[in-house]
Write a structure and sequence with these properties.
Layout (H helix, E strand, L loop, with lengths): L2 E5 L1 H10 L6 H10 L4 E5 L9 H10 L3 E6 L3 H10 L3 E4 L19 H13 L3 E6 L3 H7 L6 E5 L1 H5 L5 H19 L3 E5 L7 H5 L4 E6 L1 H10 L1 H17 L6
Parallel strand pairs: 1-2, 1-8, 2-3, 3-4, 4-5, 5-6, 6-7, 7-8
Helix pairs in contact: 2-3, 2-11, 10-11
Length: 248
């Protein structure tokens, strides 16, 4: 069964909008775990626009499931990661002006730099994943870095209309990248833009180990509460895997 990593960045975004203490992402992690989350994911950005160092330290002390830290392959945040020692780091691209991560890491263009960051983490016993587009060139480069997992960027798939040719092409690209990842002996992860309606086809990819989902779960939580929102996403994933197969 695929693990569900719940990204709680948006809880911190809401807190930072008022500059106060509420809502607390650490409490959000507790509620996500109660809903069945297999992991908690946070992105410590260089500009600290949402998750703060304080959050990360407290999450490391309190999270009972896997703690996955997303970060850029930059010395300052990498030093923090090595001090906190999450269960897993996921290296992502980062631009100051973006609202959210807009694409995969350009591993092909900076393989040496990414590989060194991966090595530093693995030397400390921390699993290291790379967030990449389902592009054969990026997959090939990522396989040389020593990463333990590849997280496929599902943004283009998620943005394509259901039933349209573009959606089928994007799913085919994900399937090809997934097969290459698994064949190389790396764990297969996926995330970005996944929601209750489109997650099934990605969850069904062969040997999918981890799905990281944030925005749709936090959005649903506004209406039903975070624990229930996580529980419903887990049910969507489980039904996709255990139910009768159909392709999009």
């Amino acid at each position: 069964m695929s693990r569900l990593g719940v990204n709680i960045d948006h809880v911190a975004t809401l807190r930072q909008a008022r500059g106060g203490r509420e809502p607390d992402p650490v409490w959000a992690a507790v509620l996500a775990e109660l809903g069945g989350a297999d992991g908690i994911t946070v992105h410590l950005r260089e500009d600290r626009r949402h998750i703060q160092d304080r959050d990360l330290l407290l999450l490391r002390q309190t999270v009972g499931v896997r703690l996955n830290l997303e970060l850029a392959a930059e010395p300052e945040v990498l030093t923090v990661a090595l001090q906190v020692r999450p269960d897993q780091v996921t290296f992502v691209p980062e631009r100051r002006q973006e609202l959210t991560t807009e694409g995969g890491l350009d591993v092909a263009g900076q393989a040496a730099r990414v590989g060194e960051a991966v090595k530093r983490c693995r030397d400390q016993g921390i699993e290291a994943a790379l967030f990449i587009d389902p592009d054969p060139r990026q997959v090939e480069a990522a396989l040389t870095t020593g990463a333990t997992a590849l997280e496929l960027h599902t943004g283009r798939y998620a943005a394509a209309a259901e039933g349209m040719r573009t959606r089928r092409l994007e799913l085919a690209a994900l399937r090809g990248a997934a097969q290459a990842t698994v064949a190389a002996g790396l764990e297969l992860h996926a995330g970005h833009g996944l929601n209750y309606q489109n997650v099934a086809a990605v969850a069904r990819l062969d040997q999918m180990a981890e799905l990281n989902i944030g925005h749709s779960i936090i959005s649903r939580a506004v209406f039903v509460g975070l624990t229930q929102a996580v529980r419903e996403m887990k049910e969507c994933i489980d039904r996709a895997i255990l139910g009768p197969f159909h392709s999009e």
